[in-house]
Design brief:
With 268 residues, the chain is an alpha/beta fold. The protein has eight helices and eleven strands. The strands form three sheets. Strands 5-2-1-6-7-8-9 form a seven-stranded mixed sheet. A two-stranded antiparallel sheet has the order 3-4. Helix 1 packs parallel to helix 2, helix 1 runs parallel beside helix 6 and helix 5 runs antiparallel to helix 8. The radius of gyration is 22 Å and the shape is elongated. The termini are far apart.
Length: 268
């Protein structure tokens, strides 16, 4: 029969590791069928996790990749996706498709040229709204509780590629961004697995829809200052939304001035 299509997965944190598990399970199920594919390699950001002065091996995605039987040679962690040795390794693999989920490194045009059917990304917002690194946190910050996850092609401009599909998720008023993110990546993962036959035949390229550039909004990186609550100028709901949105990082705090009580009659 035909040899299976080659897929390369790029991701780093816990939420992306869930997507990798689903993708590898789907690859296993596809064996022998006309839409058979395999995960040929996994790309992740270099590990920065330290415990007791020792660097832990690999990101959550790297750990899952080795647990699921991918050899060390197939787990790549370049400092940058522009590294020539990394691009060379990618050309040697010759992927039919690349899949990204919270990878965290910018993909240059000479990377995007490599996979036959392009690169697709799971982005947890209703594109073209909230393009950028912190869509879920930004949505919860402004009080949104109806969230969305998009499956879209990756182009060099951030989160600007054609949309393959979108699914919505309503979250409870006390739900925090870490829980919402993992739920959205799970839904995105289902959407990805359902779309694999179209993605690996090139049909998805033809049916995907262009984003409406007039509706673009951005979700810039979070700053530490955003976690400082100001109860004197914020409503209780605004404080609550900040706590829900920023629970992963930077967390929230309140600056208090302690007023020392005045001594009375020389005692106290």
């Amino acid at each position: 029969g035909n040899s299976p299509r080659r897929v390369v997965f790029l991701g780093t944190p816990e939420a992306a590791a869930v997507v990798l598990r689903d993708l590898m399970a789907a690859a296993e199920e596809s064996k022998g069928g006309k839409d058979a594919f395999e995960v040929s390699a996994v790309v992740t950001r270099p590990s920065k996790r330290k415990t007791h002065g020792k660097v832990m091996e690999g990101s959550p995605v790297a750990s899952v990749a080795s647990e699921l039987g991918l050899g060390e040679h197939a787990i790549l962690s370049p400092q940058s996706a522009k590294d020539e040795s990394f691009l060379e390794a990618m050309r040697d693999i010759g992927p039919d498709l690349c899949v990204t989920a919270a990878y965290g490194n910018l993909l240059p045009p000479n990377f995007l040229d490599i996979p036959t059917f392009g690169t697709v990304n799971i982005h947890p917002s209703e594109l073209p709204c909230l393009r950028g690194p912190a869509p879920v946190q930004r949505a919860i910050l402004r009080g949104d509780r109806r969230l969305c996850v998009s499956l879209a092609f990756t182009v060099f401009r951030m989160d600007a590629g054609k949309i393959i599909g979108q699914k919505w998720l309503s979250i409870g008023s006390n739900e925090t961004s870490d829980v919402a993110l993992s739920r959205l990546f799970s839904i995105g993962s289902e959407m990805l697995v359902e779309s694999m036959p179209e993605l690996l035949s090139g049909r998805a390229q033809e049916t995907a829809t262009e984003q409406d550039e007039t509706r673009v909004t951005h979700a810039p990186k979070l700053s530490k200052e955003e976690g400082v609550l100001q109860p004197h100028v914020m409503t209780a709901k605004e404080c609550h939304d900040v706590c829900c949105a920023l629970n992963i990082w930077p967390g929230t705090s309140v600056n208090c001035n302690c007023v020392t009580p005045v001594k009375k009659g020389g005692k106290g």
